[in-house]
Design brief:
The protein has one domain: NAD(P)-binding Rossmann-like Domain (Rossmann fold). It is globular and about 55 Å long. The strands form 4 sheets. Strands 2-1-3-4-5-10 form a 6-stranded parallel beta sheet, sandwiched between helices. The longest helix is centred in the N-terminal third of the chain and has 21 residues. The N and C termini lie far apart (40 Å). 40% of the residues lie in helices and 16% in strands. Helix 1 links the parallel strand 1 and strand 2. Helix 1 crosses helix 7 and helix 8 crosses helix 10. By secondary structure, the chain is α/β, with parallel strands linked by helices.
Length: 297
């Protein structure tokens, strides 16, 4: 069975590539933007027909939240229009589709964990285009599976954990916002969940939330990174108003995982479990961990 993974060089795509080595009964095709340009809709359809996968895992998209504000057309092309085409092609060609979405489809005004049925009302271009992609996907392919996730980190790519590790080694004092609440998610755990879905005896289409367990702020997450890594940098909690960004972020985006737990019988681990794994992998990279500190577990 042939599986196409788009966005293969990103955090999730890279984690899926690692797991593919243990799932050799599938024929894996990993495509980055050079191999499969999602912005070229005409050729995209042709390329999908050439590859002719039985399953598509769509990890690609315009994921730079701030840059999306100045590139709304590109963001819509990558997060919405390409998803519309992929979902239509997959439905027409009897191809299963797993599409990755985001907690940024919400406005952040909730005080309780958000279920799949919660009202989506994005506050930035990234969230707006991702929501449009979700709706196009479900409309064009009712048999698709969409996974919303949040605050993704990994030893691959660019993310909050790697940024904090770098800054904690470069600075004596670090300011981190404490008024945005959510749950960090280890990309390796998302990859594992996708494997559970692929290997499950029954395909269960629909919209699912998945993140690691644990409710935290970016500040508290930074403290966890510091405690595990053993850095001495002083971390100060500040308001997000102190660091205005081009894109507004939802203040609260904790996800309710009840549906995916129930439908696939999975146990969701705390984000600290994935964080320890991630930091262990990063510490082996001397370009990332430049300071020889005691690594706490």
């Amino acid at each position: 069975m042939k599986i196409l993974v788009t966005g293969a060089n990103g955090q999730l795509g890279s984690e899926i590539r690692k797991l593919s080595l243990k799932n050799k009964y599938y024929k894996w095709i990993f495509s980055g933007s050079k191999e499969l340009d999602l912005s070229d809709l005409y050729n995209l359809e042709n390329e999908l027909s050439k590859i002719n996968p039985a399953i598509i895992i769509n990890c690609a998209g315009h994921t730079d939240v701030d840059k999306a504000e100045s590139e709304p057309e590109l963001s819509d092309l990558l997060n919405h229009q390409s998803v519309a085409l992929i979902s239509k092609w997959s439905h027409t060609n009897n191809c299963k589709l797993v599409h990755i979405s985001t907690d940024y489809v919400f406005d952040g005004n909730s005080f309780e964990a958000l279920s799949e049925e919660a009202q989506a009302k994005p506050v930035n271009t990234y969230g707006t285009t991702k929501l449009a992609g979700e709706r196009a996907c479900l409309q064009n392919n009712p048999n698709a599976i969409i996974i919303r996730t949040s605050w993704v980190f990994s030893s691959f790519g660019n993310n909050f954990v790697k940024t904090m590790v770098r800054l904690m080694q470069e600075r004596d004092i670090l300011n981190v916002v404490n008024d945005q609440i959510g749950s960090p998610t280890y990309a390796g755990d998302i990859a594992e969940i996708i494997m559970v879905i692929l290997n499950h005896e029954k395909w269960k289409p629909g919209l699912y939330n998945f993140s690691n367990e644990g409710k935290t702020s970016w500040y508290q997450f930074a403290i966890a990174i510091q405690e595990i890594s053993g850095f001495d940098c002083e971390i100060c909690a500040v308001s997000s108003k102190s660091y205005p960004a081009p894109a507004k972020r939802p203040a609260f985006s904790l996800l309710d995982k009840s549906k995916i737990k129930r439908e696939y019988g999975i146990e969701v681990t705390h984000y600290n479990v994935g964080l320890i794994k991630c930091l262990e992998l990063l510490k082996s990279n001397k370009k990332v961990f430049k300071i020889n500190k005691a690594f706490k577990k």
